[in-house]
Each structure stands twice: as C-alpha cells, then as structure tokens.
Amino acid sequence: xxxxxxxxxxxxxxxxxxxxxxxxxxxxxxxxxxxxxxxxxxxxxxxxxxxxxxxxxxxxxxxxxxxxxxxxxxxxxxxxxxxxxxxxxxxxxxxxxxxxxxxxxxxxxxxxxxxxxxxxxxxxxxxxxxxxxxxxxxxxxxxxxxxxxxxxxxxxxxxxxxxxxxxxxxxxxxxxxxxxxxxxxxxxxxxxxxxxxxxxxxxxxxxxxxxxxxxxxxxxxxxxxxxxxxxxxxxxxx
Length: 238
What we know:
Elements: E1 2-3, E2 6-7, E3 10-11, E4 15-17, E5 27-29, E6 42-46, E7 51-55, E8 67-71, E9 78-81, E10 90-91, E11 94-98, E12 101-105, E13 108-109, E14 118-122, E15 125-129, E16 143-147, E17 152-156, E18 159-160, E19 162-166, E20 170-173, E21 183-184, E22 202-206, E23 211-215, E24 231-235
Antiparallel strand pairs: 1-4, 2-3, 4-5, 6-7, 7-8, 8-9, 10-13, 11-12, 12-14, 14-15, 16-17, 17-20, 18-19, 20-21, 22-23, 23-24
Keywords: Kelch repeat, Repeat, Signal
InterPro entries: Kelch-typ_b-propeller
Protein name: Galactose oxidase
C-alpha cells in the first residue's frame, strides 16, 4: 500500500492498493473521512486485523500528532483514534506493529529537535516506555522491525542533528524486561564487514533464520547518493 508522497512539491492524501498476484493492477481507495495530506509520516500493518495504521507526519503548514486506522475490509473507511496523553507532534519517526500493539520511536519534533522516546498504543491507550539505563540516542530516519519469534522490537540507523551525524547502531527492545534493562545493543564483531551509518533505508525481519535484512539508504552526501547497491543480512543472538 502507498499513502501520500511528494509530487511537484505538493503533499498527497491518496491511498492505493496493489494486489500481489500474477495479473496485478492498482486501485485508488476513496474515503470522505481520511488523514490530511502529508509526508514524513509513519505507518504499520496489523496482519491479524488487516488494518493499516498511520501516525504523524507533516505538511507545509503543520506537524501532526494524529493517529488513524484503515480496515481494508471496510470499503476504505478511515477512523481517527484519540491521541490523548500520546506522542507529541512529529515526523520522520519509525513505527511497527508488534504483538497486539503499535510501537513508535523517535522522529523530528515540531520544534525541529530529535526525539528519543518510545510509545506503545494498545487497547485504545498510549503508554510511554522509559528507561533509566542505556537506550538509543535521539534520531529520525531510522528503520524499525518486529521480531515475532522472540517478541522484540529492533531499530537500526537514522541520524541526529544533521546528515553528518549518521547512526550505524543496532538496538533491540524487550517489552517483557524491566524498564531499566529493556533496551540492548548486541555485540557486533568489528573484524567482519557491517553496514555503515545511514538513514532512510529499508529493513525486514526473516523469522525462519532469525535475521535482519537492510538495504540501501542515504549516506549524507550533498547529492543524496544511495549507500551501495547490495543488501546486508545480520544474524542476531537473542
């Protein structure tokens, strides 16, 4: 599914779907009630409920903190959920559906700073997860995936401050651990090749091999060149 993008310096608010079958075609989903036009928002897919979740993002006029869901079996009906006591307005953050909840991390704030917080939306309410010990630095442009074998949230990369401050670190978050030890950065062998710092890359989790795959991304160069053409596979010990 694709929802909103830049096109001729304008923000879009369309939603299209492409069934991945032998003979595929795009369909534009129409709805009278829907999220405002935006970009830099975060989205996640709930497989069990067949729902698309969208949060935040920005337009030329505002940075959003709204939360929307679309049930694909409802004929294109969007529903806006309450954001009371939830994340502040932000863009360029990471989101993933894991377990029975929506998880959000980081992003750029309305004031132009970078966020470090982690949020969980479940049963109609937001919960902010805090940690008194080590945790990822504030960032945006990073990727997040959910390991449904071990029930872990993984984040990688992103940037803080400017594109000269790119991250290459990998973190896991265990919701079942205490707040003081939920975040963990696994040891990575420095004598082996590993991805360099990057943002706006793609990531996926392969449960059969318990490995994280990432591809491409932005390396901070003036001309926005892609960081390599290959993919990286990381096997992690949880």
